[in-house]
Amino acid sequence: MAKIDAFFKLMNDQGASDLHMVAGSQPVLRIRGDMERVKYKELDNDELKTMLYEIAPEYKIKIFEETGDVDFAYEIPGAARYRANFFNQKNGIGAVFRLIPSQILTADQLGLPPVVKKFAMLERGLVLVTGPTGSGKSTTLAAIVDYSNRSRKHHIITVEDPIEFVHKSQSCVVNHREVGLHTHSFTAALRGALREDPDIILVGEMRDLETIALAIEAANTGHLVFGTLHTSSAARTVDRVIEVFPSHQQAQIRSSLADSLKGVIAQNLFKRIDVKGRCAALEILVGTPAISNLIREAKTFQIPSSIQTGAKFGMQTLDMAILNLLEKRWISGEEAYDKASDKSKFLSFLRKPPEEPF
Fold first, then answer.
1. Angle at Cα 266 formed by Cα 293 and Cα 349, nearest 5°?
2. Which residue from 137, 57, 149, 139 is spatially nearest to 102, judged by alpha carbons?
3. Fewest Cβ atoms nearer than 10 Å: which of 38, 227, 280, 303?
4. What CATH number matches the domain at 5-101, 3.30.450.90, 3.40.30.10, 3.30.450.40, 3.40.50.720?
5. What is the pTM of this model?
6. How much is the pLDDT for 352?
């Protein structure tokens, strides 16, 4: 048993999502979105480095010492997996660990809308799950892939850095590939995937122009591609994909994206007030012909209004989803107001008028 495993046990006991260990500071847990210090001494740099190096693969230690940053996954068999990031900072070494539950929650357990299951059953196209860091994108995406794995008889390839949720082959055959361990880069893995007879490809993060271009190409050539982006809304996601490309290529990409984009799930997490835990509010865009035309004609500013009127297709704005959580009395009016797009709709839920913005 590694010495650091005691902190992971504490993390699990406290229901924390993240563990921060930084030289010169006490360990810190993120619990329901808030940072809580652990009653422990300040971490000494040499002691912490020894503790961290005990669980890191040798080749990852080498990368860290050469670059000052590294990501990898650490697993405690029978307990959980953790996404680890090591970094250097002013007082020495630091690390952040994100909990990846060993049990994948299903779409029903997460309460995902029915249209999300339809995304999992598409024959081809691009589906993006977006949101800020720590918004539950990986959990939602894992549930979608899990539904495909249970319901289809296809080949699923995942490309991640590092591998997070591990899917056991069920009705599908699932192959996991980790960037840096099994393949040189997302781009190399995507190029290879097109020769590996896939039906479904999961791209852990669409980071750069070439990865995004290959994902769109794969979606347009008969594959179902799932990916993640760090964007806050469906309309912003479309703009982000297009803006990655040089201006002289944007018209072509706009057309390709209009043909390939089948759905966007943009989500945010909220503290629950009825029980311990958090819940997600999802903005959902479905790639209808009307949405495709808006993308093709560079009218993405009209996407929010199209989502509002697209309820029959399963679409909903983030504010609609937040309002639903409020009506269930799962979240507070203050947090709803804070994270809403149109804050005026949520003024009546506040206990006191908001302070003027500074």
1. 115
2. 139
3. 38
4. 3.30.450.90
5. 0.90
6. 83
